[in-house]
Each structure stands twice: as structure tokens, then as C-alpha cells.
Amino acid sequence: MKILLVHNTYQDRGGEDVVFEREGRLLRAAGHEVREYQRNNREIKDYSTIRKLTLLGRTVWAPDSYRQFGTLLDAYRPDIVHIHNTFPLISPSIYWACQERQVPVVQTLHNYRMFCPGANFFRAGKPCEDCVTGSFWQGVGHGCYRDSRTETAAVALMLSVHHARKTFARMVDRYIVLTAFARSRFINAGLPAEKITIKSNCVDPDPGMRQGTGSYALFVGRVSPEKGVPTLLKAWRQLPRSMTLQVVGDGPGRAQLEAEAAAEGLTNIKFLGQQPREEVVAAMKGARFLVFPSELYENLPLTIIEAFACGVPVFASRLGAMQEIVEEGVTGHFFEPGNSDDLARVASWAWDKADHLRGVGEQARREYEAKYTAAADSQRLVDIYLDVLAQRHGARNPVRPLHSVELTQSEAQDLVAPGSASRRCDVASEYRKPLTTVDSVSQRPPE
């Protein structure tokens, strides 16, 4: 199959960038021909002042991206285009380039930007979906994107124009979301339910199960208020100095929080800054549990499933997608979001329960093996591509996902081998059985 992957890379590398690279690598390993179209936000640093003034318009429609992408489509002639992010340099113009050439489009929704200028359904310290029921221009007054009314206006304009022109509803064949919770929010916002399929991310390479039960609590992620780090530190102020906390990551809140911890003599809290993946994995394997105190809805945080892969329990805020990913008392524990007292209570209760934490960690590892391996993720992605291609070629019913058909390993490998695109109609015919709803392939129903 010939696949064209698209991504507007962020200045600060994040989970979306990791997933984009990982899926490309897995598809190539399965024998597919993969090309990439990328723009990087670091380009903006080299823009002249006059060119920066054009960002407002190019966020809506980037003429250079439209031309470049159209040329690439004509030369490469992909079977399918898979978009991860178009904001801000690529722009929704590429949907129109695909539409003009009748190339099927799949898009992964890593965040909520399609219905929220700030991309996270969060404002003033709590979840917010005002732009779903009102106007995108509400966010301008609040400066929801990067605390800037001007930059938020650019996002609001892009969203207003393309929702009015039904770009997102008409020009994408299938949306991939990472959890049932996210699917429920996008349906509530107005995306067609039949176009939304759930596919989780994966952890690859597999870091392997850790040994022992660890000696400290661990936070990994962006050090900022919405990620719940101030709540985390407030909780640790209440706990004995024998309970160590390691904070891995960087962000706008790090300097202040690190200074506060030092001033208060909290020697049991260590800020380690940004670390390479191998050091993050080592830190996870040495932790008693991972704390995920985010006050956002989130989608499918890689940090959580990486902890599962290492066999580490996850203590998470009871909010949004976390309620679906973590199971209370089985793969981790919950505390009330933003409630430092409740977090301190849960952490204190579990700290010396070595046998309990070992059992929860083992169950977390089993959860990873059941849902988040590279093999499962790669096949599920190809299932989605085949389903979209079959529907484009007039199949009367959606293709039955390959993972719901009993196949030998060699048969499954044959279906994702080179040349599978030329046989997609045969594959569709062989495995065409009706799906009652998209939810029939999801991992869990919405709460």
C-alpha cells in the first residue's frame, strides 16, 4: 500500500511527533511504501516581520503548502493520505488538494483543536467546552491559544471558515480517536459518528517488565499548571520526607516550582528536567508508581501506557480519558483532579503496600500486552485503511476488521505485505461482513 503521512511538527517535541514517527516506522516494517510531508513550526523563527504578518491568513489557507502537496500527490499517487496535524503552516488547504484528486483521507485527532482554539477544552483551571455550544470567537477574548488574543484570532478564523465550508465534515473519510471518551466529545461537538473509529497508540520498542517495586513516586511530562504539577507539589508538602518524588520534564512552571521546593526545604522532591527516552524508561522502572495529575481531559497520554509497559501502577486524576485508561485498584488508583489532599491520601495509603503495588504493576503490564503493543497497533491501522479504501470502491458494507477474523500469523502478514493495495478489493470481498456500529471495534464503551 502507498501511504502518505502528513504532520506539522511542533517546536517542542511532544507525543504527537512521537506517534507520527512511530506509525511511519511500523508501516514500513510491515512492507508498505510510506512517504511523508512535513512542515516544522521552527520555520517561523526565520520569518521576516512582514512574513509573520501573513500567518493569520496562511493558518486558514497556506498557498505554498497547497501547491507543494498537490505536486506530491500527482507525483506519488498514494492509495491513502493520513494526516496527523496541519496547524499552522500546512493548513486545511491540503484537504482540498486531496478532494480534487479523489484521494481518501484519514486523520488522527490527537487533541481537540478542531473545536477549541486552545486545543484542550480547558480554561481558567477547569474543563471548558464553550466554543462547542457558542462561537469560536469567545476564545479570542480569553486568549485561549498561547495567552494571546491575536494568535487565538488566527485559530478562530481558521475554524470558523472551514466549519462553514464543511471541510472537516466532508473531506475526511475517517477520523481516528484514541479513546471512547474522546469519541464522545467529538460526536457531541458535531462530527459524524460513523466517521469516527477508536484506535489506541502503542509503546515501541517494548521496554520490558521492571523488577522490584521501586523506591520513589514519579511524574513525567510538561511542568505546567494544567498538567497538575502545582497540585502534585502541594500534596507532597503534606507527606513524610521519606516519600521521594522525582519530576522528569520541563515547562513554564518548572523554575518557580523548583524554587519553591528548595525554599521550603523539600529535599525529597527532585527536578530532573527533560531526559532522553532511555533515561525516562529507567526512571519508570525505578518508581513505585507514576503520578498523572493532569487537570485536562487528555486523550491517550503516552506516559501512562509507557508506565503500563514497564509494569508500573498509575495514580491518575479521575477525569476525562484517564477514567477509561486506568482501572481503579487493578492498574492504578484515582484521586480527585486538583485535590492535593486526596492525592496525598492515596499516595500515603499505598506507599508501604509493596505486595499490592506489585500486583497492580503486573496487571498494568498485562493491560499493555493486551492493548498497546506495536503489532496490535500496526494491524489495527491497516484495518482502518482497508475499510476506507473498500468504502471508496463501493463496498456495500464496511470491511470487517482483520483482528476480528481468525487468521494465522502468516495469513495476517500476507494481508499487510507489499502489493496489498492492489488486492484491497479482493481483501474487502473476502472479509466483508457488516459492522453494526463503529463502536463494535472499540475497546470500551463511553462511560
Task: Characterise the protein shown here.
- The protein is 42% helix and 15% strand.
- The longest helix is centred in the C-terminal third of the chain and has 19 residues.
- The strands form three sheets. The chain has a six-stranded parallel sheet with strand order 2-1-3-4-7-8, with helices on both faces.
- It has 20 helices and 14 strands.
- It has 447 residues and is α/β, with parallel strands linked by helices.
Present the secondary structure layout.
Layout: E1 2-9, H1 15-29, E2 33-40, H2 49-52, H3 55-60, H4 63-76, E3 80-85, H5 93-101, E4 105-108, E5 122-123, E6 126-127, H6 130-133, H7 138-142, H8 149-164, H9 167-170, E7 174-177, H10 180-189, E8 196-198, E9 216-220, H11 229-236, E10 245-248, H12 254-263, E11 269-273, H13 277-285, E12 287-292, H14 302-310, E13 314-317, H15 322-325, E14 332-335, H16 340-350, H17 354-371, H18 374-392, H19 409-415, H20 424-430
Parallel strand pairs: 1-2, 1-3, 3-4, 4-7, 7-8, 9-10, 9-12, 10-11, 12-13, 13-14
Antiparallel strand pairs: 5-6
Largest sheet, if any?
6 strands, parallel
Strand order of the largest sheet: 2-1-3-4-7-8
Report the principal-axis shape: globular
Structural class: alpha/beta
* Secondary structure tally, helices: 20
